[in-house]
Amino acid sequence: QSDNKTDILSKQLFATVNAIKSDSNLNPEESYKEIANNVAEFVTDNPNPNIVKINKNDISVIPNNTQNKKAYTKSIGGLSETFFGKNTNIGTETSILYYSLVNEDPTHLSDLDPIISSYDALAKNLTSIKVPELAVNDHVELVNTLYAISASLTETKSLFSDSVVGIRGVVGYNKTATELDTIIDRLQTYASN
């Protein structure tokens, strides 16, 4: 059985503690800082390898004109209503995560599964609509951000079994949720002009 990232870093910490105990020449503060830096580096500098990414070639790009812009805006609006409307669970992920952490109950993290599926389905649906040339960059970024949120939530489910990966998921989710707001604002500006 291979160790998860948390196990590997725990073993490094244990080895460092033992080395410090047996060698009085080692600087404990520097050794602990190095381990803390290893954890921080993994969380911030190692992107989730499971993030799906698309590019402009994956999108059907159409000319810029009023009719295409209206059709695109209508498509986006319909998908938004379907996936962010009252009969969906997108948006409840932070409550699920909070409940699981406060109650130290990993079983509720499986409640993220339908949300993860919804983000993936929304991204996939957005990939299949026709996008006016002026909106294509933001549209590609929107799809990639939705896929990144899904991948981050998947990692978040590991909080109790592989804490380091779970923390990377939480950090990734917070970052991409903020990016999503920015992209939505830009697309709303495009639609209103």
Question: What is shown here, in short?
Answer:
This protein is mainly alpha-helical. The chain has seven helices and two strands, in the order ααβαααβαα.
Structure overview:
Helices cover 68% and strands 3% of the residues. It is elongated, with a radius of gyration of 21 Å. The chain starts with a helix and ends with a helix. The longest helix has 30 residues, at 163-192. The protein has helices at 5-22, 28-45, 66-84, 93-102, 113-127, 136-156, 163-192; strands spanning 60-62, 130-132. It has a two-stranded parallel sheet.
What's the SSE blueprint?
Elements: H1 5-22, H2 28-45, E1 60-62, H3 66-84, H4 93-102, H5 113-127, E2 130-132, H6 136-156, H7 163-192
Parallel strand pairs: 1-2
Helix pairs in contact: 1-2, 2-7, 3-5, 5-6, 6-7
Offer a few descriptive terms.
about 190 residues; mainly alpha
What is the overall silhouette?
A: elongated
Give the class from helix and strand content and strand pairing.
mainly alpha
Q: Could you tell me how far the N terminus lies from the C terminus, measured between alpha carbons in angstroms?
A: 57 Å
Q: What proportion of the residues form beta strands (DSSP E)?
A: under 5%
Q: What is the string of helix and strand elements?
A: HHEHHHEHH
- In order across it, which strands form the biggest sheet? 1-2
* Unreliable segments of 5+ consecutive residues: none
Describe the sheet with the most strands.
Answer: 2 strands, parallel
Helical run tally: 7
The beta-strand count equals: 2
In helices, the fraction of residues equals: 55-70%
Oligomer: single chain
Task: Estimate the mean pLDDT confidence.
Answer: 86
Cα Rg: 21 Å
